[in-house]
Amino acid sequence: MDLNPYVDDLQHRLAVAAELGGDEALDLARRLSAPLDAATRLVLLEALSAAAGEITAELAPGSVDVRLRGRDPEFVVTAAATTTFEPASDLSAAAALPAAVPLDEAAATSRTTLRLPDQLKAQVEQAAARDGVSVNTWLVRAIAAAVAPAPGQRPTDTRPAEGDANRVTGWVR
C-alpha cells in the first residue's frame, strides 16, 4: 500500500491552511513538511496496525497482518483453514475416550471461558448432539484426546527443571 498520496495530501492541506497566515506561515509550513513526513507515516502505520488487529479479531481463526516492505505497508491475509472440521472423523479418539483416557469424574474441575467463532460453535453443538452428550462433555473429551500422548509416545514432563521456576515456555500468536 503506497502511503505517498496520503502524506502528500496532508502536506498540501498544511500548505493551504498556512496560506491564510501569509508568506511567513507558508514558508514555515514548507519547512515543517519534510520532518513531518516520517511522523505522518508512523501515525498511518499505527492506524493500519490497529485496524488489522480489529479485523483479525473478527476473522478468527484467520488473521490480517501489516508488514513493511521498504517504506510501504503491506497487508498479509491468512484465511482460516479451508478444510471443514468433521468432529466425528477428525476426533475419533474423542469418541473412544473412556477406554483410551479415563477421566476422573470426581476430580476437581476448573471453569474456563472459551471464545469460539459462531460457525465453529455450531459445528461443536452438532457433533455433541450427534454423540448424545453435552457440549461441555464433548469439548472435555476432544481436549483430553488432543493432549493424550500418541500410542508408543512417552508423555512429556511439563514441570519446570530445578532452578527454572520463573521460566515460561510456550507460543503466542
From TrEMBL:
This is Toxin-antitoxin system HicB family antitoxin. Coiled coil: none annotated. Residues 156-165 have a biased composition (Basic and acidic residues). It comes from the Bacteria. It comes from Agromyces tropicus. Residues 149-173 are annotated as: Disordered.
